[in-house]
Amino acid sequence: MVRIIDIAEKANVSPGTVSKILKGTYTGSSETKDRVLKIAKELGYKPNLLASSLRSKKSKIIALIVPEITVPFFPELSRGVEDEARENDYNVILCSSNNDPVLEAKYLESLERRWVDGIIFSRITGDTFKERIPRLLANKMKMVFVDRVPSENDLPIARVEINNEKEAYKATEFLIRLGHRDIACITGPLNTRIAQQRLEGYRKALKDNNLPIRGEFIVEGTFKLDSGFKAVNILLDRNIPFTAIFACNDLMAIGAIKALRKRNLRIPEDISIVGFDGIPLSEYIEPSLTTVVQPIYEMGRTAAKLLLEGIKSGVEPKDHIILEAKVEVRESTKEL
Predict the structure, then answer these.
(1) Cα–Cα distance between 12 and 31 in angstroms, integer?
(2) Which of 150, 159, 186, 318 is deepest in the core (most CB within 10 A)?
(3) Contact call for residues 275 and 281 (beta carbons, < 8 A)
C-alpha cells in the first residue's frame, strides 16, 4: 500500500504538504501541487477510507432496508437510491428483511453498530418502532422512510410516498367509468399500512358512486404473484359474477391474469383488470396491464437526497413529500 510518506519522499516535500494537496487545501505553488498529484497517480495511491472516516466521523455509507427485494418495485427504488448516493460519493448497503419483523429489527441493530451515516427504511410492521427507532433517533442516526411509511406522525423523520388511498380511488373509479359495477379487489397483506390505504381507496370509490361494498368481492393477498393467482380462484369459486378486478399491486394482477386464462376467461373481453405500481414488466405482458404508475425511481432518489442533506447539515430531515402517480391505460381494460 502506497503511503503519503512515500509520495512525500519521491516529491521531496513534507508529508503535511502532500496531505494538504490530496485533501485540496494546499495554497502553495501550482508546480508543487502538480508534481505531487502526478507522483501520487504514478504510484497508484488510494486514500485510506477508514482513516478518512475516523477523521471526519463520516463513513460515506448509507443503508437501505426493504421488505422484499424479489418484488420488482424495490430494485427500481434501490436504483434511485444508489444513483443519488453515488453522485454524492456515498455507497449503499442493501438489506432485505424478507417480510420478517425479527430480521428487520436485527438489521437496524446491526446498522446501529456498523457506523452507517443514515438509513432509508421501507418498513413492514409497527413492531420495530417500540424500541429501535427512538433509540436510533436518540443516537442522532439520520433516517428517511420511503413507500411504506409509519402511521405514527409524532416521529420526527422524513417520509417519501404517494397518496395510496387517492390513487387506489382513481384506479377503482376508472373501472366504474368504464361501466363496471361488480368490481373485485385483491388486497395486499392487511397488516401493512399501504394495503389498508389502497383497500380504503377502493371502498371509498364504490361508496361515492353509490355501489355496494361486498365482502365476498375482497380477497387478501401478499403482494406476490402466486397470491394473485390464488385470489382469482377463490373469487371464481364463490360463483359471484364480477366483471373487473382491482389488484393492489402489479405482481398480483399478473398472477390474476394467468388464473383467469386457466379458467378460460379473456382479458379484457370477459374481465378487465387494473394493477398498481407500474413495474416495467406490466407494460410487456400480454395483454399489457392498465396500472397505477408510481414514480418508483424518483421516490428512491428523493429519499436519498433528503437523507444526504440531513447528514450534511447534521439536522434530522423532517420533510413529508408526497409524489404524484397516474393511471396508465393499456390493454387489460375495456368499456362494458
Answers:
(1) 13
(2) 186
(3) no
pTM of the complete model: 0.82
CATH code at 262? 3.40.50.2300
Q: Closest Cα partner for 272 from 256, 284, 285, 292?
A: 256
Helices (H) and strands (E) in the chain, counts: 12, 12
pLDDT per position as a tens digit, 19-70: 888 777 788 888 888 888 888 888 887 765 445 544 445 678 999 999 988 8
Does residue 312 have a pLDDT over 70? yes
Distance CA 301, CA 84 (A): 5
The residue ranking higher by pLDDT, 99 or 81, is: 81
Domain that holds residue 29: 4-47
So what's the pLDDT on residue 58?
Answer: 66
Does 335 map to a domain? Answer: no
| Any domain includes 53 | no
pLDDT (tens digit per residue) in 175-195: 999 999 999 999 999 988 899
Same domain for 129 and 272, yes or no, is no
330 is a domain residue: no
Closest of 292, 270, 122, 133 to residue 202, by C-alpha: 292
CB contact at 8 A, 255 and 228: yes
Beta strand ranges found along the chain (DSSP E):
61-66, 91-96, 118-121, 142-146, 158-162, 183-187, 218-220, 244-247, 272-277, 290-293, 320-323, 326-328
Taking each helix axis as running N to C, give the angle between helix 15-23 and helix 30-43, from 0 to 180 degrees, rounded to the nearest 10. 90
Q: Are residues 152 and 301 in the same domain?
A: yes
* Mean pLDDT of all residues in 232-253: 97
Residue 318 exposure: Cα atoms within 13 Å on the Cβ side = 8
Note the pLDDT tens digit of each residue in 201-242. 999 999 999 999 999 999 999 999 999 999 999 999 999 999
Are the C-beta atoms of 178 and 335 separated by less than 8 Å? yes
For residue 333, is it within any domain? no
Query: 222 and 157: one domain?
Result: no
Q: Are residues 10 and 126 in the same domain?
A: no
| 94 lies in the same domain as 173 | no
Tell me: do 154 and 179 sit in the same domain: no
Q: Does residue 128 carry a pLDDT above 70? A: no
